[in-house]
Design the sequence.
């Protein structure tokens, strides 16, 4: 049963779709990948990959969703009844749910740090904090991270708060919930990014940070850097998760898919670039450029070290963790919607019932993910905590498999002319764009994504 929900406006459509792509992958993964892969050389490759790989694959997913107006499984059942292609959609739904289970934990950490910033407790690290050595500051905020996010009870409480916030928004539906939230939160996110970028560019060593980020050293380009740039483009655009198929099923039929894909990709790219402009001048100015900028270390250790050395420490900290909470919320809402749409479409559930069926098990699964980093850390799967195992399995294996399969299906097995008609809205004038997109989807994207998959596995 095709869903009847639709986004109510072009702005809302773009805001919601950009919100589904912009998230924690842009805020903390991009700076870490840039730092470890040669700076500007990686940025250049990443931009190329977004246009060569990201937009064509996004168009393939948009065409599936908008054309069939169904969930990630239903689109394949409608186009190829009796065939096994629906398994591709099922894997996408499972992957998005697994990612959602540990993303909720990270969202809870973000809420905790925002609260600790508001109360000032995050910066109660003793006298002389601003003048302490980088090593001393690092030790202090590492201790704070251990205290706030690697214990048992408090992280679960904050995760549950974020689950309830998500549930409240999702219960309001596509227009009154997802679209309205996106219309409010996405402008807030961009305004905060602009503010932080302005502050970062005014720092004493901003030019040195920008040199690393924007002046490419082509000798840094290696096969590993190319694969990592492909992976970042793939992850930051939310490809292979079922999100873009689900959200595009809410697009009005007259939506111009190519224009929408380019707009979403450019805005997503803009967020990543602005994060680089924010991070690298700051870490260079405060002598933190040799720090590990990966994941939790960047957000919960390095950036508080930056804020404590700036005037108005608490103010900047509150703003940043507000920004991060917005990114986390748009990510978790879009991930949850994939499963909710499936439950509504496949089982004829009311939206309220589908929301509860999807969200209630997360109160257990997300708690287990959180506990796996604390008291249950000794219980591992393939040598990994449950949190890391789900992250590795979903993001490094399942998502590339879904993306490869989607490209092969749309390039070779979808009904004849379906992709072309959806991509061009039946307009013969715009069909000249179809052939290069089809070529990428048929030949280029599967090979490049397979390279990512093999690199991650081996």
Sequence:
């Amino acid at each position: 049963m095709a869903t009847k929900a639709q986004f109510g406006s072009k702005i809302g459509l773009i805001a919601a779709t950009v919100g589904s792509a912009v998230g924690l992958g842009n805020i903390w993964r991009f700076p870490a990948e840039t730092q470890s892969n040669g700076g500007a050389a990686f940025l250049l490759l990443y931009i190329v990959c977004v246009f060569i790989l990201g937009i064509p694959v996004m168009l393939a997913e948009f065409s599936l969703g908008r054309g069939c107006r169904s969930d990630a499984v239903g689109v394949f059942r409608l186009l190829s009844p009796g065939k096994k292609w629906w398994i591709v959609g099922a894997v996408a739904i499972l992957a998005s749910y697994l990612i959602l289970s540990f993303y909720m934990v990270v969202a809870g950490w973000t809420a905790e740090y925002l609260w600790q910033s508001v109360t000032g407790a995050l910066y109660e690290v003793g006298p002389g904090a601003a003048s302490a050595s980088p090593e001393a500051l690092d030790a202090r905020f590492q201790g704070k991270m251990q205290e706030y996010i690697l214990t048992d009870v408090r992280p679960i409480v904050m995760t549950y708060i974020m689950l309830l916030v998500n549930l409240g928004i999702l219960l309001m539906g596509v227009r009154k919930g997802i679209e309205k939230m996106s219309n409010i939160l996405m402008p807030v996110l961009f305004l905060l990014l602009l503010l932080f970028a302005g502050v970062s560019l005014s720092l004493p060593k901003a030019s040195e940070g920008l040199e690393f980020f924007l002046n490419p050293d082509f000798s840094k380009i290696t096969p590993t850097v190319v694969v990592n740039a492909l992976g970042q483009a793939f992850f930051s655009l939310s490809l292979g998760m079922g999100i873009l198929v689900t959200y595009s099923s809410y697009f009005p039929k007259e939506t111009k898919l190519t224009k929408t894909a380019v707009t979403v990709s450019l805005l997503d790219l803009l967020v990543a670039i602005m994060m680089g402009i924010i991070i690298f001048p700051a870490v260079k100015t405060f002598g933190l450029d040799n720090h590990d900028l990966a994941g939790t270390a960047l957000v919960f250790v390095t950036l508080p070290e930056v804020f404590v050395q700036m005037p108005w420490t608490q103010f900047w900290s509150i703003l940043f963790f507000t920004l991060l909470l917005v990114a986390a919320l748009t990510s978790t809402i879009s991930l949850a919607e994939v499963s909710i749409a499936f439950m509504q479409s496949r089982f004829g559930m009311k939206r309220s019932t589908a929301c509860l069926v999807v969200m209630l098990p997360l109160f257990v699964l997300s708690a287990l993910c959180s506990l796996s980093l604390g008291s249950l850390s000794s219980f591992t799967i393939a040598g990994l905590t449950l949190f890391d195992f789900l992250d590795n399995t979903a993001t490094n294996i399942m998502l590339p498999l879904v993306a490869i399969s989607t490209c092969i299906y749309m390039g070779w097995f979808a009904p004849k002319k379906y992709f072309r008609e959806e991509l061009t809205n039946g307009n013969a004038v715009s069909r000249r764009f179809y052939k290069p997109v089809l070529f990428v989807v048929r030949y280029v994207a599967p090979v490049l994504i397979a390279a990512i998959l093999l690199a991650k596995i081996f």
